[in-house]
């Protein structure tokens, strides 16, 4: 029997599954808490929860990870140097060392200037920065029409340093020089981070005697080997939701379905059609940065198992994430007694920070955002908060240490939470499920104590309060799903016309698959709220890890064909490799389709996939001039190739994987 090992590091849990590669059946699963300060600890614990006797049979391993997303959100990428060719950028970029040189091309791929005129300036820039940056990003004006200058400068930089170099055209062929430059910068900053992660995963595999190929899931739902993952780590942003979508399709056998993935931090909705994930027309946005990373089409809301449930003029859920009381009490058992005896804030002072269920712990410096400075009073408030290993502090305990009224420092405390200097503990939907007996992983007594405090504010019993929390989460999930299919509807219309009407239901004609640890508790409500086939598959709680394992290698490429000039019958084709001229549009299309197949087969060959095992689809879109149909103004060819890496001879794939690791000094 040949087994596959799938691993997913989510916001709350790190999951692992073992699958029979021949039948697709899940053999075993394991969950452990994600260790954000060191993801490898959580991965190790999750793998250790599986039967060690199976490890020697593992021939294929794949991982989806939050590493790229979290690193970008927290601004913890490594510093890089940026070389701009033929233009300058006035907008903000997360980079300090920037050099602007001559060069670039026009919209038809014609050279505007020679970048080698500034070779001396380039040399001086590299010499002055190579010891303080970890990589370089190169972005040229209209490099999507002609990448020659980016490739030339990359070659020159490589002669001066061994640091990684990223070119904008290697990551996206779309127009938009700022977004392309930003994507290259973020990618360059993530290379050292991903390098360390891959090293760590390989070391865990070696320690557990797991001798197999290793692949990583991208945010478009496809798999890549570690060599490509290390070169393009920015493409693993949102790989978790992508893995959830692919996993849901595998677990149910539905090639077309919509998936709702409920995690600790967010709820993600996405769709797969005929076995291929729907891809967004726009690039992924993470941490406010609009990239050109091709990602699955996804609606995300800040609603998850760890969303903060708080009382203030009624019941509120989110948007902030906190540590569930039931989880915190596992490490700090005396928290239960503290909740039963401590002073409770009056209703008139309640906000997101001041709650009868709010507790605070000081985080180690390694967890904080980079480049932050604290005022003297901020530092005083931080010093008054308990260390992470001590029983968490209440608002009044912090007040006693400072000698100040809570109203004087709650804004400061809130700022310290946002800066990741302090972690907030509070009541969550996960705690509500503990009280209702629908989830029991952690301390139910602590959850019940927290529920009583909040229920008293609203004059409800703890059970009534928790049921209201559960129903509110279900309604929000249903509203998000309706908005996914009908984005033109206003949120208030969704709630008024659909969710709150006893005579209408929103009908969804494709199966709705629920994935995530807590979703069983919401499935009945969901079925009542919508007219849809709602499916809770086996292994729903580890669907992301399943998806990380069952993804395909997917290669997408585009060709743009245009007349060389207005009225010209000579056509120019722009593809991933450069700019080419043809005597007619028919010749341009014919040769470009051949080139697409050539690029697909070359990519799949890296994974040991033969041409006969690869599916290729090419779509054509013409833009005509008026009513003329003879010669298009523009032709767009979109090619996609799909191959299954699990069907490749495992020893051959493993040798390729190890060779890539060796070449990258892993």
Automatic annotation (TrEMBL):
Domain Hydantoinase A/oxoprolinase stretches: 180-477
Coiled coil spans: none
Positions of the Hydantoinase/oxoprolinase N-terminal domain: 5-160
Gene Ontology annotations for the cellular component aspect, listed alphabetically: cytosol
An annotated Gene Ontology molecular function: 5-oxoprolinase (ATP-hydrolyzing) activity
One GO-annotated biological process of the protein: glutathione metabolic process
Transmembrane segments: none
Pfam families, alphabetized: Hydant_A_N (PF05378), Hydantoinase_A (PF01968)
PANTHER family: 5-OXOPROLINASE, 5-OXOPROLINASE RELATED
Record protein name field: Hydantoinase
Species per Swiss-Prot/TrEMBL record: Methanimicrococcus stummii
Lineage: Archaea, Methanobacteriati, Methanobacteriota, Stenosarchaea group, Methanomicrobia
């Amino acid at each position: 029997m040949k087994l596959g090992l799938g691993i997913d590091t989510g916001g709350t849990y790190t999951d692992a599954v073992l699958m029979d590669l021949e039948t697709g059946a899940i053999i075993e699963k394991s969950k452990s808490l994600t260790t954000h300060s060191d993801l490898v600890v959580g991965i190790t614990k999750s793998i250790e929860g599986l039967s060690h006797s199976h490890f020697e049979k593992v021939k294929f391993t794949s991982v989806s990870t939050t590493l790229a997303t979290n690193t970008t959100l927290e601004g913890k990428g490594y510093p890089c140097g940026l070389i701009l060719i033929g233009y300058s950028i006035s907008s903000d970029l997360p980079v300090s060392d920037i050099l602007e040189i001559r060069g670039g091309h026009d919209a038809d791929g014609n050279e505007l200037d020679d970048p080698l005129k500034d070779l001396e300036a380039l040399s001086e820039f590299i010499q002055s920065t190579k010891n303080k940056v970890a990589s370089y990003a190169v972005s040229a004006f209209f490099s999507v029409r002609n990448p020659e200058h980016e490739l030339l400068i990359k070659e020159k930089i490589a002669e001066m340093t061994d640091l990684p170099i990223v070119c904008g055209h290697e990551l996206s062929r779309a127009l938009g020089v700022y977004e392309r430059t930003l994507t290259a910068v973020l990618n360059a900053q993530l290379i050292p981070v991903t390098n360390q992660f891959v090293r760590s995963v390989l070391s865990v595999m070696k320690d557990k005697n797991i001798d197999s190929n290793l692949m990583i899931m991208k945010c478009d739902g496809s798999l890549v080997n570690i060599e490509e993952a290390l070169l393009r780590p920015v493409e693993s942003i949102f790989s978790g939701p992508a893995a959830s979508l692919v996993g849901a399709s595998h677990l149910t056998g539905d090639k077309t379905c919509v998936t709702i993935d409920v995690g600790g931090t967010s709820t993600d909705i996405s769709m797969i059609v005929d076995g291929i994930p729907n891809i967004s027309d726009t690039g992924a946005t993470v941490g406010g940065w609009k990239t050109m990373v091709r990602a699955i089409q996804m609606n995300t809301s800040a609603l998850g198992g760890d969303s903060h449930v708080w009382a203030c003029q009624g019941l509120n859920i989110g948007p902030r994430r906190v540590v569930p009381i039931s989880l915190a009490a596992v490490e700090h058992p005396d928290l239960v007694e503290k909740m039963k005896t401590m002073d409770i804030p009056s209703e008139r002072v309640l906000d997101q920070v001041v709650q009868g269920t709010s507790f605070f712990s000081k985080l180690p410096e390694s967890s904080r955002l980079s480049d932050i400075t604290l005022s003297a009073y901020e530092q005083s408030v931080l010093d008054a908060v308990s260390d992470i290993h001590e029983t968490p502090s209440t608002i009044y305990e912090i007040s006693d240490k400072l000698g100040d009224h809570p109203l004087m420092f709650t804004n400061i405390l809130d700022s310290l939470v946002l800066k990741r200097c302090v972690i907030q503990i509070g009541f969550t939907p996960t705690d509500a499920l503990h009280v209702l007996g629908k989830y029991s992983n952690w301390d139910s007594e602590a959850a019940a104590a927290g529920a009583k405090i909040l229920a008293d504010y609203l004059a409800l019993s703890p059970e009534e309060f928790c049921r209201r929390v559960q129903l509110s989460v279900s309604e929000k999930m249903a509203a998000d799903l309706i908005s996914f299919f009908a984005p033109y509807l206003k949120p208030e219309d969704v709630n008024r016309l659909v969710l709150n009407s006893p005579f209408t239901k929103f009908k969804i004609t494709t199966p709705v698959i629920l994935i995530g640890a807590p979703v069983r508790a919401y499935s009945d409500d969901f079925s009542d709220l919508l007219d849809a086939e709602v499916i809770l598959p086996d292994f729903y709680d580890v669907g992301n890890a399943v998806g990380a394992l069952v993804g395909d290698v997917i290669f997408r490429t585009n060709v743009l064909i245009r007349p060389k000039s207005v009225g010209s019958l000579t056509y120019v084709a722009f593809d991933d490799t450069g700019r080419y001229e043809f005597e007619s549009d028919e010749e341009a299309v014919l040769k470009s389709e051949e080139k697409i197949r050539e690029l697909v087969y070359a990519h799949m060959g890296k994974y040991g996939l033969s041409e006969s095992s690869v599916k290729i689809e090419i779509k054509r879109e013409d833009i005509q001039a008026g009513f003329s149909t003879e010669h298009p103004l523009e032709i767009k060819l979109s090619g996609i190739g799909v191959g299954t890496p699990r069907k490749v001879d495992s020893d051959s794939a493993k040798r390729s994987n190890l060779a890539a690791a060796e070449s990258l000094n892993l």
